[in-house]
Amino acid sequence: METHLFDMLSQVDGYIYPNEIELQWGILVVLYPYLTGLVAGAFILASLERVFKVKVLGPTYQLALITALAYLICAPLPLIAHLGQPARAYEIMITPNGDSAMAIFGFVYLWYLMVVLLLEIWFDYRRDFVIWSREEKGIKRVIYKILTLGVTDISPKALKWDDRLGYIITVIGIPSAFLLHGYVGFIFGSIKANPWWSTVIMPVIFLFSAIVSGIALVMVLYMIISYIRKVKIDM
């Protein structure tokens, strides 16, 4: 192993960085598209209830959104752990390479996290945040008051606006979810060195696998939570 590494390094002309020694993608890189697929699938499940009025999925709506948010926050962690210098991961946002598909994906990720998921969840839970900020005490009250963002109006008119804006964001979120995971498929499909990956249908394959895996995850979580809470599965 050491002899092979020495022979390889002797052929290097110029500088070599820590992440260039390991040429193959490991399990950490594989985890990232898997996690983003779960995110996209969970959000699609939530949109089926809100946009397409599939009322039978009503009990899983909020669970699907929270699941999507939780997995989206954790999705970059395997990539950061894979880097030779994880502390420099933030530089992809402040000094991006416009010619890099991976660099542009960082902005796709931020768009989906901040504009779609966080905003939709905030509109859905704003009424609860206001009520909890009035009922709770101590540190919980402070946290909930901050989460209201100063918007404490919970009149029927205000709640109607919340629902309308949340609906609009969900509609925007559907193509955004396709972009989130389809873009990962585009990155894999553009790798010509691997004939199994280099195909134009790779984004489509990623999207369908994401929908199936994300919906399955939410269904399993719903069944587990219902069992723990001793609540009948209402679907």
Descriptive notes:
- By secondary structure, the protein is an all-alpha fold.
- It has a domain at 26-122 and 168-228: Formate dehydrogenase/DMSO reductase domain (Formate dehydrogenase/DMSO reductase fold, Up-down Bundle).
- It has nine helices and no strands.
- It has helices spanning 2-10, 27-50, 61-74, 76-82, 91-94, 101-135, 139-147, 156-189, 202-228.
- 23% of the residues are buried.
- The mean pLDDT is 86.
Task: Please outline what is shown here.
InterPro entries: Electron_transfer_protein, NrfD-like. The protein has 235 residues and is mainly α. Helices cover 69% and strands 0% of the residues.
Give a quick set of tags describing it.
Formate dehydrogenase/DMSO reductase fold; 9 helices; globular; 0% strand; mainly alpha; 235 residues
Task: Produce the secondary structure layout.
Blueprint: H1 2-10, H2 27-50, H3 61-74, H4 76-82, H5 91-94, H6 101-135, H7 139-147, H8 156-189, H9 202-228
At the third CATH level, what is the topology name of the domain at 26-122 and 168-228? Formate dehydrogenase/DMSO reductase fold
Poorly predicted regions are: none
Q: Please, how many helices?
A: 9
Sheet having the most strands: none
Report the span from N to C terminus: 56 Å
**Averaging pLDDT over every residue, what do you get?**
86
